Amino acid sequence: MTVQLHSHFAEAAKPALPPRRKPPRPISVRVTHQERAELEREAGEKTLSAYVRSVLFDTPGRRRKHSKPPDIDRVALARVLALLGHLGIAPDLKVIAESARRGTLECSPELLIELEQACRNIMLMRADLIRALGIKAE
Asked: What angle do CA 107, 108, 114 make, to 5 degrees?
């Protein structure tokens, strides 16, 4: 009987586990798309949380553990957009497509479809370049 009591007392005598601490609650701040883009640009290789924490508490932040997507080469994008505008490809294709549609240019229905698709593709490229550069379309 003493052996059984001893095991019960030994179990009861173990120190209690410290209470589990809850993780701190996050702080949320709403920012505009432009403000977030600026913060991400300023964060560089840091995570956005680490960057904001380092600015708030004036401490160095931890480095980002995963790779960041490459920066946009704005000069190259602007050069492509300017070249697209100077070459006048879209208007030329539109003239060709209109001539084919009126019947003044001999072409098959397949060629007409391809010309119209080429015009749409160029307009989509232009829109994507304008969006990537963050400028307003005319």
From this structure: 95
Predicted model pTM: 0.38
How does pLDDT run across 31-51, given as a tens digit for each residue? 999 999 998 888 888 888 888
Residue 64 DSSP SS3: coil
Structure tokens at 10: 């030994």
Q: Residues 65-103: pLDDT tens digits? A: 555 555 667 777 777 877 777 777 777 777 887 887 888
Q: Which residue has the tokens 């019947």?
A: 103
Interhelix angle for 48-57 vs 33-43, to 10°? 80
Residue 90 contacts by C-beta under 8 Å, 6 or more apart in sequence? 84, 119, 122, 123, 126
AA letter at 102: R
Structure tokens at 88: 């006048």
Q: At residue 80, what are phi and psi to the nearest 5 degrees?
A: -65, -40
